[in-house]
Amino acid sequence: MREATPVPNGVGQGAPVILLAGANGQLGQELLRSLQGEGHIVALDRHGLDLADFDQIRQVVRTLRPAVIVNAAAYTAVDRAEADSVLAQRINAQAPGVLAEEAARLRATLIHYSTDYVFDGTLARPYVETDAASPLNVYGRTKLAGEAAIAQVGGRHLIFRTSWVYGLRGANFLLTMLRLAQTRDEIRVVSDQCGAPTWTRTIAAATAHIVAQWPREAEALEAWWARYSGLYHLTAAGSTSWHGFASAIFSYLPAAKRPNVMPIATTEYPTPATRPANSCLSTEKIRQAFGFFAPDWEDALRCVMDEYADYGVRFGAAREDMR
């Protein structure tokens, strides 16, 4: 458990308490860095705040009395969720509602993250927030139910749908590809699904950018939330396929260590959970509301791979891989 000293409502420190759930996850670790300076952060992993334990959720929130709850925790094992739907439902669908209820009791703010997998991927354009959701898998259905639970409670909340999340921590496509490149000369990657690979730091930076805009005066804050509370799409700009993403990742490796990337159809790589063919999300609403311009996915990947090369000691033999 990673935790700052719990001081209810920042008493004695002059700062609001920010409760960060899922602090050890790939997004949680970036949020912990990006939200520094916005309040007194109490960062908890699943041992300190288990979203499957509703009594614990209520106890933690009522003890800390945070001004902001940032929920970066979720059941994210998309394929495993097909056989583990009860736990996925509890964590992804029901727990956000409990968090929303507790936030409403305190007149606190809830920030929650959702997914492109709430859509079936049949549209030929990027999805906007008002498009009808029709998830194809258990993960998507439970995340959509979590969105609905928060909206039903109401109160001050921001729900950010994102897509194809990756970074240099945790388990994600980028790290899987880099690992496979060490042992394989050829890798088969799906080429008929499109989306926007989104760096965890982009999501965390956007979150901090929006938090910093909140008015400090009570009357202005009420008006702000009346206008901006709700659902937003938050991804990198641009789009590619999984095959395109893999090819871009390997382009940063020396030619001698660069595997051949073979494009395949989704039907050639069956998985327990069905994925949408189109995971592209329009970010026009978040740009208009908050002035946040997300970087192009290729520009973000360049930054990630520079960091991978520069900090090889932290991330295995990265420096050696880049030679």
Show the helix and strand layout:
Elements: E1 17-21, H1 26-34, E2 40-44, H2 54-64, E3 68-71, H3 85-106, E4 109-115, H4 138-153, E5 156-162, E6 165-166, H5 173-181, E7 186-190, E8 194-195, E9 198-199, H6 200-211, H7 218-228, E10 230-233, E11 240-241, H8 242-250, E12 260-264, H9 284-290, H10 297-310, H11 318-321
Parallel strand pairs: 1-2, 1-3, 3-4, 4-5, 5-10, 6-9, 7-12
Antiparallel strand pairs: 8-11
Helix pairs in contact: 1-6, 2-3, 3-4, 5-8
Family: Belongs to the dTDP-4-dehydrorhamnose reductase family.
GO molecular function: dTDP-4-dehydrorhamnose reductase activity
Pathway: Carbohydrate biosynthesis; dTDP-L-rhamnose biosynthesis
Outline:
This protein has about 325 residues and is an alpha/beta fold. It is built from eleven helices and twelve strands. It has helices at about 25-35, 55-65, 85-105, 140-155, 175-180, 200-210, 220-230, 240-250, 285-290, 295-310, 320; strands spanning about 15-20, 40-45, 70, 110-115, 155-160, 165, 185-190, 195, 200, 230-235, 240, 260-265.
Specify the biggest β-sheet: 6 strands, parallel
- CATH superfamily annotation of the domain at 8-171 and 196-237 and 280-295: NAD(P)-binding Rossmann-like Domain
Number of strands: 12
3D shape: globular
